[in-house]
Amino acid sequence: MTIDNIVESVINRASVFKNRSVLDRSYVPDQLPHRERQLALLAEHFKPVITSPGSVSITTLLVGDIGVGKTVTAYVFGRDLIKVAEKKGIKLRYVHINCHSARTLYGVVQSIATTFSLSIPFRGLSPREMMLIVLNHMKKHDLHAVITLDEFNYFVQVAGNDAVYFLIRIYDEYPEAEKRLHYIIITRSLEVLRTLDPATESYITKHIIKFEPYKAEELFDILKQRRDLAFYENTVSDEILKYIAEIEGYDKGGKGNARAAIEMLLRAGIIADYEGSQYVKVEHVRKAIGEIREELLVDISDNLQFLQLHELLILKAIIRRLRNSGESYIKIGEAEEEYSYLCNIRKIKPRKHTQVYEYIRNLKNMGVVSTKISGKGFRGRTTLISIPVPLDPLEKRVDELIDRRIVERDVNTI
DNA sequence: TGAGGTAAGATAAGTCACCG
DNA sequence: CGGTGACTTATCTTACCTCA
């Protein structure tokens, strides 16, 4: 077989997928099986936004573990609420902010401003001034907005109490103003909120909507919905879906993580295609599970996309040192060394000690690496860094992202 | 005493309002 | 219109602190 033939035959090979994007993380389905109650509760809380716009500012908290539908519920709610608002002639916007990428007050306010297409300079304005510009814009054009702060715990950790207060209780300062901003706050646990001052905490936790892990039966329904859209008919049987649902189902000892279940289905499909199979077999699912290995890996690669160039370079440095040493831990100093080496061969100016330390702390907070303080048997005191997942696939992903960041940066500087 | 943690101040780069 | 001061974020520098 010649090279051309290989390419052509792979491309022309039949696929089990009709529309793979349905299985993407970012896909927002029309219907949300088993989240009807949460959606209804949201609608109940946000009712005044439609019935008496401007009268009151709504803040609702969504709490639940990873992969239980918080984000997608917020998206669906935003989408549907806009439709309702349109019918009533209310101009409503939905803004979804992931606090991984916008973790300072400045970043969040800037994201809000951007969605209103306000051309606001990157530097030179305080969050306060920027917010004022946004509020004036909204008033001028009679706009209302629901702002979702996803992964809110990061915002709390990084931006701190005052920033949260400013954002969420902005109308405390202008009690006479029309209430045009509303918030949906998403977090995995309530724990971080305790670091806020009690008044702010209780304000945020007044309306809580809980998301329980999915049971096997519920996962089955979700998978069925996705399968019908993503795969050609008769390529994935109900048995396959049931198999996945029972592995992941909360009542069957799984985590109840729908995202992981969908990922399993996606990978099984990819493997089926790769093997040239007409349909997805249980065997493919098993292989997919082997690939995914740990839920951790899903969790981590989920986080990677939010890292900045230098954070990625440090992560790569840690991976390399860990592999070369064969140990389960490396010292922070080694990571720093390797990092500046990696920077130098790329002709990038390495960040200095304090910054490296901050970055590593952030990697730890995001759960990408784990650290512990050295105990006895070490000279001095140092932080020991380890990575709890297979290194090779992780490094591959990190490399991709580093390349992408470098290209992005070069584009921006032209 | 060594290795790193951390706080504070300095600097760079960017923008706005304001003033003549 | 150009200059200036005030204020922002991000980063660096420095100097001191802490613990095994």
3D architecture notes:
This protein is an alpha/beta fold. The chain has helices spanning 3-12, 36-51, 70-87, 105-115, 127-140, 152-168, 170-173, 198-204, 216-230, 238-248, 258-274, 282-292, 295-304, 309-325, 332-345, 353-365, 391-413; strands spanning 59-64, 91-98, 143-150, 181-187, 208-211, 330-331, 370-373, 383-386. Residues 374-380 have low confidence and may be disordered. The structure holds a DNA duplex (20 and 20 nucleotides).
Précis, in short:
It contains 17 helices and eight strands.
CATH fold-level name of the largest domain: Rossmann fold
Radius of gyration equals 24 Å
**Uncertain ranges:** 374-380
User: Which CATH-level-2 architecture of the largest domain?
Assistant: 3-Layer(aba) Sandwich
Q: What is the H/E string?
A: HHEHEHHEHHEHEHHHHHHEHHEEH
**How many beta-strand runs?**
8
**Residue share in helices?**
55-70%
CATH superfamily of the largest domain: P-loop containing nucleotide triphosphate hydrolases
Per the principal axes of the C-alpha atoms, what is the gross shape? globular
Structural class: alpha/beta
Strand content: 5-15%
Number of helices: 17
Q: Give the class-level CATH name of the largest domain.
A: Alpha Beta
Largest sheet: 5 strands, parallel
How many distinct domains? 3
Strand order of the largest sheet: 2-3-4-1-5
First-last Cα distance: 44 Å
Query: If you average the pLDDT, what whole number results?
Result: 81
GO biological process, one term: DNA replication
Domain Cdc6 C-terminal: 315-398
Pfam families: AAA_22, Cdc6_lid, WHD_Cdc6
Binding site for ATP: 68-72, 214, 226
